[in-house]
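User: Batch of two.

Assistant: Item 1 of 2:
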Amino acid sequence: MAKMIAFCFLCVVGWACYQLYPAVIYVTTADEQIDFYSGEKTLYFWVSNEHRELFQIGKTYQLKANQQHKQLVLSTVTFAEMKPDSLKLGFRLLKSDKFAVEANQYQITEVQLVTQP
């Protein structure tokens, strides 16, 4: 009985730590493409397939590397045969939006939008 209580306690503590201190997720640069008609640029990044449930099209994510910070909206999520354990995330930039890829790896977090009542 004491072992069962200890096991349950450790499970609850582990779950609480996971909720309070989520793992840091990094993406690595893949490539960029420019749409011929609209002129919009799409930046692509690779991320581990184990994080697939954390990404949703239309949500805003913040990319950080060194002194560079940028909020981008996720426009595509694709699976690639050449990297079966990875996802390819596409973030579309408008013509007026400036973002130069300066690092090979970025920390990515979801931006929680706060609505005013």
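Item 2 of 2:
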Amino acid sequence: MYIFFRKCTSRHPASGALQLHRMISSSEVATALRPFYFAVHPDLFGRYPQQRQVNEDSLKLLSAHLESLLSQQRILPSTPRSLPFYVRASNAPQDRGTFNLIKVPLERTVDAKVLLRRILESCNLPTEYVDKMPSTKNSTAPPSGTHPEGFQQQQQNSFYYRKRSEYNFGKEQADDDDSPFEKEFDLFQFRIKKVRENETLKKWLRKHVVTATVRTKAVQELQEEVQKLREDVTKQLGLREIIYDCGWNVEHFRGCLKSLEKLAELHPGALDGLKDRTLVFAAFTGVSLEGHVMLFTGDVQRNWLELIKTIDKHDSYLRKLPAYEYALSQVLRNIRIGRRKFMPKAQAMAYASHLRKITTALLDYLGRSKFPKSWPQDLSQFELVVESEAGPLMVSPTGQLI
């Protein structure tokens, strides 16, 4: 058992009095709710996924409520008024698949004993253990009748009380004992609301203009450094252009340029394959359908070097793409093979593999069957776009088959 003392505030009955709190430990709660856990445990509903999921979700919410109640003596604003649980109708074999839905109420009180009793009573479970536990409700001396005369009137005339009343106007008021933290939460919300109302665009700009100026200046200096580094690397490797097609910030772009510069210093002759090419820092490593050399920004230098050394192999696939597209077009009755204007970037090697797979699958189908008779003999008026395996099957707004 844990006992501690604290001094009362003006919110409680007598100023300067002492309150005695008896806090229930987590082991006592587990012991008291043991029959309840045996009745609603999700493992008992393995063959009934719906009931199992309901009980599992409700137990998570109940656990969070009890943890907040025991550790912080507060009620979470997100705590529902009741939780649904499924329990077996009976232990008879013929009623094995029959369940009763029970709404377990969560009392809006910090007295854990009251909460435990209501949980057990809602499931018709014994409460002897809970009845023997001392109450956790605050005992105060002197009694509430000893308020100084005019204390309540003084509290109601205070600024925060009036503002809180204005904020809560029209709401259903709850008793202080049932929701001890509700008024504090409403007051907190009221303060936030007032701050937001007083925050005009002019005030916000005035508050952040210094920070924006400092950051803009820092970014400008960094961009100038990156631009100079890009020009140096482009000239050093004989590149046509360096493009940064990645969602990361400019600092990451600088890191990529420095890594490429260091790679050129360590392997001066190995990067000759990049001459007169467009280099793109992107989300994958390979050669794109446009013939650009793509380097993944998250790769290590060794992977970049392996691609650059085998760039001729990737270029060979790039040269074969028209033949693969023509073969697929012939199988699909002269359908046009096109590409979307803003289609995702793809490797030439992977795109060639997709074209071969589709062509082979269609030839296998035609070896066993025929195209539907409703199909026209010539599909040249249609256009087919082949994208990655993870792409959607759809018809684009322009009529392309994707």
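Residues 270 and 305 are 8 Å apart (CA to CA).
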